[in-house]
Automatic annotation (TrEMBL):
<dbReference type="InterPro" id="IPR001789">
    <property type="entry name" value="Sig_transdc_resp-reg_receiver"/>
</dbReference>
<comment type="function">
    <text>May play the central regulatory role in sporulation. It may be an element of the effector pathway responsible for the activation of sporulation genes in response to nutritional stress. Spo0A may act in concert with spo0H (a sigma factor) to control the expression of some genes that are critical to the sporulation process.</text>
</comment>
<feature type="modified residue" description="4-aspartylphosphate">
    <location>
        <position position="59"/>
    </location>
</feature>
<feature type="domain" description="Response regulatory">
    <location>
        <begin position="3"/>
        <end position="122"/>
    </location>
</feature>
<dbReference type="GO" id="GO:0003677">
    <property type="term" value="F:DNA binding"/>
</dbReference>
<keyword id="KW-0238">DNA-binding</keyword>
<feature type="domain" description="HTH LytTR-type">
    <location>
        <begin position="165"/>
        <end position="236"/>
    </location>
</feature>
<dbReference type="InterPro" id="IPR046947">
    <property type="entry name" value="LytR-like"/>
</dbReference>
<dbReference type="InterPro" id="IPR007492">
    <property type="entry name" value="LytTR_DNA-bd_dom"/>
</dbReference>
<keyword id="KW-0597">Phosphoprotein</keyword>
<protein>
    <recommendedName>
        <fullName>Stage 0 sporulation protein A homolog</fullName>
    </recommendedName>
</protein>
<dbReference type="InterPro" id="IPR011006">
    <property type="entry name" value="CheY-like_superfamily"/>
</dbReference>
<dbReference type="Pfam" id="PF04397">
    <property type="entry name" value="LytTR"/>
</dbReference>
<dbReference type="Pfam" id="PF00072">
    <property type="entry name" value="Response_reg"/>
</dbReference>
Length: 241
């Protein structure tokens, strides 16, 4: 999951950059969230929450708290957040390197979209982002499924229901045991929360007493015997992202 922040005081530019990023990420079938901030002050008010972002696109020439100052605040909390300066000015390049910015891109460049694409390619390579896909023989034919888009699998009698997010949630049917699929998907971040449910931990947003809340607001039961292990696994996962 790419969590991206755009921090810029130009509303039009925020929209333009957001559209380019969405186009790139959708083309490469990557999961993402993009948040926008209209000033450096607004962004740094997040405090330590700034480090939840994989990438921060920063305008340098903002009023009150500029991009360089914002980047320095980010670096007080983390060296891992990837900072990209996107600005109309070229006289801050040295300052950008001091805060370990991965790129310095100029607004108004006629090749701006291509530069954003190249920047994203470099970031994907740097963090070793991998799109995991797997072939399944469903009852209506063989399909390749993007594992990051799979919410959960439910066992019903002698069949499995694969709940997958595309433009909307889709369900695919496979005649197999959940035990077998669990072994195949365990290394890809799927956790057994119940005798009948195998869930993609990337889509669990919260664990409450004996239930898992998923990103689509579905609540699934966690069996009593599995609750402690599931909760610990979720806590470990949250600590890694």
């Amino acid at each position: 999951m790419f969590r991206i922040a755009i921090c810029d005081d130009e509303k039009y530019f925020i929209s333009e950059l957001n559209d380019i990023l969405c186009k790139y990420l959708n083309k490469h079938e990557m999961e993402y969230e993009i948040d926008t901030f209209k000033s450096g002050k607004e962004f740094i008010e997040l405090g330590i929450e700034m480090i939840k972002y994989t990438i921060v696109f920063l305008d340098i020439n903002m009023d009150e708290i500029n991009g360089i100052m914002t980047a320095k605040k980010i670096r007080e909390f983390s060296k891992e957040v990837l900072i990209v300066f996107v600005t109309a000015y070229i006289n801050y390049t040295l300052e950008g390197y001091k805060v370990d910015a991965i790129r310095y891109l100029l607004k108004g460049n006629k090749n701006f979209e291509e530069e954003i694409y190249e920047c994203m390619d470099a970031i994907v390579e740097k963090i070793n982002y991998v799109i995991l896909k797997k072939m399944f023989k469903f009852n209506n034919g063989i399909r390749e499924i993007h594992l990051n888009k799979m919410l959960y699998i439910e066992s019903k009698l002698h069949k499995l229901e694969f709940h997958v997010i595309k433009d909307k949630e889709k369900i695919y049917i496979l005649y197999e045991t959940l035990n077998k699929i669990e072994k195949e998907l365990k290394a890809s971040g799927f956790v057994r929360i119940h005798q009948s449910f195998l869930v993609n931990i990337k889509h669990i947003i919260n664990i409450v007493p004996h239930s898992a809340i998923l990103s689509n607001n579905i609540e699934l039961p966690i069996s009593k015997s599995r609750y402690k292990d599931v909760k610990n696994t979720f806590i470990e996962y949250i600590g890694e992202i």
